[in-house]
Amino acid sequence: MRNTIKSVIVIIASVIGFGANAQTKSESNSLLWEVSGNGLAKSSYLYGTMHMMCEKDFMIPEKAKKAFGKSDKLALEIDLDDPAELQYMQKMSLANEPLSKVLSKEEYQKLDGFLKETVGVGASQFENSNMLSIMSVVMMKALSCPPKMFEMEFLQMAIQRKMETIGLEKIQDEVTAFDKSYSNEEFIEQLKYYDSKLFQDMSKVYNSEKLDELYAMVIDKKFMDDNTRHWMLDFRNENWMKSIPELMKKESVFFAVGAGHLAGEKGLIMLLRKAGYTLKPVMK
């Protein structure tokens, strides 16, 4: 079960691309935001995660633990405590068609060469895998260290407290967004940017809590054009906003989602403010 959940989180990480070296002016250096006002009985919290990083770099700040302790419910992108979601994840890891039929001859040869160089096996070993499964393997290889995952840690904390866990969407929603975002050619081109330095750079920025700089890394043009940004971030944020207000109306919810969803004009912080809520960075 733990390996299945890990696979789900790797898929979630695959859905959000990572860029590097872009910077914007930061509004507030915090990954944790308090949501209050607009008739809420209690404050809720919005926490930006990095779906996976090296164990040596991993930490949950005390302020996040305190906010979690005040919350009544945990909301993740995907409900990792839902057996149906985990079963779907296992099914969708297998492709409907063989990889050699999905890709053109040129695309297959390019992917084959890349996989042999980076993973050590050719495309034939992934003949019955889909693109997201291949990307998850490449990402795990690029991380090159024992991984830790925020979603897994928060889930365990919730289980210990007998705290209800919910998902803002289904894994199928994420897969659909991915399919609408990348052509096979774009997907293969993107793979070459995943390496250990990328994760190191992102982990450093993440742990410094420079939210807007982190957002700029996520939307780097190597990974996201306007179409990709719409489906991977903006569209999903808007969908989540259809349920977030009702979820936190009568109880405190700890929302833990990828940090790339928080910032930007169409990020959750701005969308919640436009909906009438007060968003305040929690600094300590």
TrEMBL record:
<keyword id="KW-0325">Glycoprotein</keyword>
<keyword id="KW-0645">Protease</keyword>
<feature type="signal peptide">
    <location>
        <begin position="1"/>
        <end position="22"/>
    </location>
</feature>
<dbReference type="GO" id="GO:0006508">
    <property type="term" value="P:proteolysis"/>
</dbReference>
<keyword id="KW-0472">Membrane</keyword>
<keyword id="KW-0479">Metal-binding</keyword>
<protein>
    <recommendedName>
        <fullName>Polysaccharide biosynthesis protein GumN</fullName>
    </recommendedName>
</protein>
<keyword id="KW-0482">Metalloprotease</keyword>
<dbReference type="GO" id="GO:0004222">
    <property type="term" value="F:metalloendopeptidase activity"/>
</dbReference>
<dbReference type="GO" id="GO:0016020">
    <property type="term" value="C:membrane"/>
</dbReference>
<dbReference type="GO" id="GO:0030178">
    <property type="term" value="P:negative regulation of Wnt signaling pathway"/>
</dbReference>
<keyword id="KW-0378">Hydrolase</keyword>
<dbReference type="InterPro" id="IPR040230">
    <property type="entry name" value="TIKI1/2-like"/>
</dbReference>
<keyword id="KW-0732">Signal</keyword>
<dbReference type="InterPro" id="IPR002816">
    <property type="entry name" value="TraB/PrgY/GumN_fam"/>
</dbReference>
<keyword id="KW-0812">Transmembrane</keyword>
<keyword id="KW-1133">Transmembrane helix</keyword>
<dbReference type="GO" id="GO:0046872">
    <property type="term" value="F:metal ion binding"/>
</dbReference>
<dbReference type="Pfam" id="PF01963">
    <property type="entry name" value="TraB_PrgY_gumN"/>
</dbReference>
